[in-house]
Structure prediction request, 193 residues.
Amino acid sequence: MMDGGATSKEPVIAVIYHSGYGHTQRMAQAIAAGAGAELVAIDADGNLPQGGWNLLDAADAIIMGSPTYMGSVSWQFKKFADASSRPWYAQTWKDKLFSGFTSSAALNGDKSSTLNYLFTLAMQHGGIWVSQGIQPSNSKAAQRNDPNFLGSYSGAMSQSPSDASAGEMAPGDLETARAFGERVADVASRFRR
Ligand SMILES: Cc1cc2nc3c(=O)[nH]c(=O)nc-3n(C[C@H](O)[C@H](O)[C@H](O)COP(=O)(O)O)c2cc1C
Prediction:
């Protein structure tokens, strides 16, 4: 339902994302489950579904996601970003909370470049960025499915080998994504007080 939750006191949170092969979609679903958010999927032509723009306009927090393709967002996500020049022009998304997430094949894969782009887009809209806020699992004892094993601070990340399907994603990355969604919702509810 994309009614923007107008009658609720709970913050309205939207997860807007593009996914070519399903990995970023699974992250988006996990984040939305943690945040109690509405999903807005950018389609293969870079367009939003009916009601998508209205939901973003009504949202207190917008969490943006794209796969990392050639070190940045996909062209479909960039089409959405360019189309967001309409709310940018009127600064109607000013002071909303924003955050971001991405997936890649390589362990590093330049995912930070993608998150940096999402941050820049949020800043152009006059937004307030929410960090991932989950301590990294980076000790010798750390295991692949421990919280924030990829050690991201600026947003949520997942990594899957290039020949692994979305169904084979690391459960720890998805659980990290869910916990990240919870955090954004917590920050958003504090901002509404
Ligand atoms: C056109 C293209 C470019 C890619 N560029 C990168 C890259 O720069 N770094 C990387 O680690 N993986 C790269 N990948 C792999 C994807 O990031 C990875 O498969 C990701 O999980 C795909 O997410 P999706 O299923 O949501 O589309 C690329 C894949 C494609 C199709």
The chain has a mean pLDDT of 95. The pocket of flavin mononucleotide is lined by residues 19-24, 67-71, 103-106, 109-110, 160, 162, 166 (CB under 6 Å). The CA atoms of residues 100 and 115 lie 6 Å apart.
